[in-house]
Amino acid sequence: MESGLKNQMVSNMGSTKYGCSHYRRKCKIIAPCCNEIFYCRHCHNDAKNSIEVDPLDRHDIPRLELERVICSLCNTEQDVQQTCTNCGVCFGKYYCSKCNIFDDDVSKNQYHCDKCGICRTGGRDNFFHCDKCECCYSNLLKDSHICIERAMHHNCPICFEYLFDTPRDTTVLPCGHTIHLDCVKEMEQHFQYSCPVCSKSYCDMTRVWERLDQEIASTPMPQMYRNKMVWILCNDCGETSEVNFHILAHKCVNCNSYNTRQTRRTHTLCTSGLSEIVR
């Protein structure tokens, strides 16, 4: 009778809500760093790195050192394993003993990458590991992405969250730099279309440049500025050139991009500035 009741309880767990926003699982972890109980390492890290926590006490969980879990069904504390030693419930249909990950949502197509040293989602057959970038990328990028050494082993340039093991979707920009996908979308809401690391345009800006051509043509500069020349550096092609000064933008003569920056003053302006200092 007792065995039958346990089996019924185990089966009923499949129809109830469990786990957290990061993983569907039937166990909690005991953090080896602070001996506190959480559903997963992300829950721990979010709690222990929040703005309310003293900066000296903030820390991430050493996930590979995890040794103990607690069954969500019978509250039995035990060593890390896929099934409960007491009630027999499966903590997660996907289980990785190397990463100590449990997850019942197998629609993520989880797999463990030995070279990354962590579990990834999306299906092993859909990704390849780039040895130079030291990360798994979509097969669509295999012959086209620009390799940057340890490209994923840094913080997102927008939100500063570490990218290598982030649970959020990431994307690789044409320049090779990586960033959270939702951070890119937020940039676009503020009309920012260049990489925050190297400033190269990450999408086709042809129509924008054409509109700038029209605006510059319809906005002539005053006579005293019409012959003024400035040196610019193009963020897109990397070439420097000397062009006519305009208050709106400066166009690269090599690739026709307006994604440029002024690099130095003209000799006349430098001399004028020096005279003012001497006086």
TrEMBL record:
Residue span, CHY-type domain: 13-89
Record carries keyword GTP-binding: no
Domain CTCHY-type: from-to ranges: 91-155
Entry EC number(s): 2.3.2.27
GO molecular function terms listed in the Swiss-Prot or TrEMBL record: ubiquitin protein ligase activity; zinc ion binding
Record keywords: Acyltransferase, Metal-binding, Transferase, Zinc, Zinc-finger
Record protein name field: E3 ubiquitin-protein ligase RZFP34
